[in-house]
């Protein structure tokens, strides 16, 4: 058979060439454009075929991939006419109300300044202002704003003062009897002891009333000025209220009078001190005070 016959497949002399008459796709693609007609094809190596070099000329333009349109929501448009200076607080009020608020604040500021000035004059040493206007200062301070700075004194109080009272009662049969002494200070102490939130009444009512009485009375228990009579009435009403708390009155009994006294004893000095003080208590007994209708109203009747 003719070796150049295209109808037959020529035999390869290379023993390493496969006998499969069907060429591989890589070999066909590489030999097809360069093999002239009538020539014998070169044997195909068994290893991998190297890639063809890229053409030296410019690469043909490729069509751009189609882009999918994505709808992005537009941001909300701002307020076309925003208020650059919003009004708040007092500014929202009318002019008349703004003037009223300003006047109220001015009055409060003046009252605070006057109160601070009065308290300063009250606790300050004696000076020209207190000599001329001491009465006005006292009228402002007493009794609500009284200042007691004994805690900061060079020689603080070293005494225990207990306030006690007793009552004279007329029974329903017309007879009269006198109760024993009630230790009012001890009662307040028991109410405060162990109480994390004691009331202002339990802590200061009785103590401050006795301090006011002592400050406005002389050694013979005679009142000094108008505040002396006021302190008597205050202390007497406290005593009447305490009689009602003690349930000393039976049905039909009438409270006739009350008597108050103080029991003062010195605090014993520490063991390491050489100070010698008397431990005997000192009593200050007041006269009997008759109980009026104003004293008993709303308390024991």
Task: Give structural notes.
With 301 residues, the protein is of the alpha+beta class. It has helices spanning 25-31, 95-123, 128-141, 184-192, 200-215, 226-245, 293-296, and strands spanning 159-170, 176-178, 182-183, 254-266, 282-285, 289-290. β1 and β2 (176-178) form a beta hairpin. The chain is extended.
Task: Describe the secondary structure blueprint for this structure.
Layout: H1 25-31, H2 95-123, H3 128-141, E1 159-170, E2 176-178, E3 182-183, H4 184-192, H5 200-215, H6 226-245, E4 254-266, E5 282-285, E6 289-290, H7 293-296
Antiparallel strand pairs: 1-2, 1-3, 1-4, 4-5, 4-6
Largest sheet: 6 strands, antiparallel
**What is the number of strand segments?**
6
Beta-strand residue percentage: 5-15%
Extract low-pLDDT stretches: 14-19, 25-31
Look at the structure and give the mean pLDDT: 77
CA-based gyration radius = 57 Å
Query: Residue share in helices?
Result: 25-40%
Number of helices: 7
Summing up helix and strand content along with how strands pair, one would put the structural category as: alpha+beta
Sketch the topology as an H/E string, one letter per element.
Answer: HHHEEEHHHEEEH
How far from one another are the termini? 154 Å
Q: Tell me the overall shape.
A: extended
Which terms summarize this structure?
single chain, 301 residues, alpha+beta, 6-stranded antiparallel sheet, 7 helices, 33% helix, 12% strand
